[in-house]
Amino acid sequence: MAEGLRERKKRETRQRIADMAMGLFMARGFDNVTVAEVARAADVSVNTVFNYFTTKEDLFADRHDVAVDLPVRVLRERARGESAVAAFRRDFLDAIGTRDWRHGLNPGADVFARIVDDSPSLVARMRVLQEERETALARALADELDADPDDLTPRLAAAHILTTTRALTDYALRRQLAGEPWESVEPGLRAAAERAFELLERGLGALGELGELGEGPGEQGEGQDHDREAKSQA
């Protein structure tokens, strides 16, 4: 069904308000911007802002519903015969290559992260978002598995998968916030993602057997050289 004129104008107004708000937040920080200032920048009234966004935090997290639904889409749109973990591995590696926003790897994500870190209310809001994403994914997994209400498998699987992707994103953001360019961050992030999803595929029971998971490039070879040197000295 084609979008009507009224619906299009409402969508455009909402987007303009969100864009103006994000521009102000990025320039001055979330806590230093008022809703009245956002309204003036978007050339609307304060009441109009609140007609579209219930809270000031909603202005920052204007894609909340989309973000909550993304993990469910990865699960449901995976290829036939592809496991859930394999689907998220493929999706995360694709986001690295395309620098897509869905995993927080887009240009400017480090600025976004800094704004969140500087605002306790946004930290709390992002925590709620993460919980909703896990709940939605767990529900979708439970539907696929036809799991009993008391079966913790869907909940545990969702938590493991999304904690992994979140930890990988945090790893990339920490390095960028420390001043590293993306070109320097990407190879290490890709290697870390491969190791992390291998761990998910094999399960934590094999953790003691995967000593290489904690080793950076060259570390395993350096350890072997050290062992050979120790043997030759003996």
TrEMBL record:
Composition bias type Gly residues, residue spans: 208-221
InterPro entries for this protein: Homeodomain-like_sf, HTH-type_TetR-like_transc_reg, HTH_TetR
Keyword hit for Manganese: no
Entry keyword annotation includes Ribonucleoprotein: no
GO molecular function, one term: DNA-binding transcription factor activity
Region listing for Disordered, in residue ranges: 208-234
One Pfam family named in its UniProt record: TetR_N
HTH tetR-type domain span: 11-71
Compositionally biased spans, kind Basic and acidic residues: 223-234
Keyword annotations of the record: DNA-binding, Transcription, Transcription regulation
DNA-binding region: 34-53
Protein name per the record: TetR family transcriptional regulator
Species: Nonomuraea terrae
